[in-house]
Amino acid sequence: MEDQSGNETGARAAPADAPADTPVVFLHGLFESPAIWESARRALRAQGIETFAPPLPGHRSDAVRRPASVGMHAGDAPARHMAEVLRLISGGRRVRLVGHSLGGLIALMIARDHPDMVQDAMVIGAPHAGDAGRVAGLATRLFTEVPLIGPISARLLHQHWLSDAERFQLWFSRSLAPGECITGLPARVRDELRGGCPETMRDMAVWIRAQATLESFAALQVPVTVTVTARDPVVTAEHQLMLARRLPGALAQVIDSGHLPMVATPALFQRTVAAWAAQPRPPLQPPMAAADRSAEAGQGPVRMGAAAPERPAAGRPAPPLPRPAAPEAGLPAG
Fold first, then answer.
1. Is the full-model pTM beyond 0.85?
2. pLDDT at 303 over 60
3. Contact, 56 vs 28, CB < 8 A?
4. Lower Cβ count inside 10 Å, N or C end of the chain?
């Protein structure tokens, strides 16, 4: 059972030795809902970890929506709003963030601007710029760039996508890699989105297309694990790796999945999240001087990011990532 913040109110008490003092907050992607995290949250509850999963603006009946959300597509408004939500649901405690796609970008912005709030973060299939490594198609451009067509199409598409369960699954399948199928999409995702605000969802789509945040993340003071979805048809693997290389001290891990591992490979995704949650990252050390970095080259584990250059394994070049198929026409989830 959940309260309106997405907290599992029926979770059992954590064992004394469980890492339960810092809650984990899940932030979903565009055209998704908090219910998409159900299986991952169950895995963490088994470890005695408290979790929250608040909705992004417009993505559930209790989320901020128009007219209150007017202006949500300007500046850093979505990240500022979600930072306040985090303060409320956590009671002011520091949190650990897990963010998918748009939720991953917002998680990084919160960690950048409020390092006092965030212990560490894991992002999955996260973009750092609106193009996500791809050229926007006509449907996306009409949806986000044309003031008259956009809001009307948002309402029509919202009604069309959610009209029945089969159509909803077909729409979600646009974010899968070739050969994947949906095996773990909770019915509650559709139910929650039906109570959302299509105009506010469109505002979020307009906002993310305007973002270019890569350089701003060079000052991030929070440890981040970047989970690269290797066969992602929405956010290219190369785009995700560019983010991992720019984040100070980031760790990158690659999983064989399209854009929605939580519904296409739920068992793999549960293990990935549970392993991350069981081993919190230590705080980042102050940046080393260039001479110190040179002296330490070749020693210890290699981290991707500004703190240490990426190096392939000795004598064996890193294998190329598989190229996903071109996405179908339309607006995918995420």
1. no
2. no
3. yes
4. N
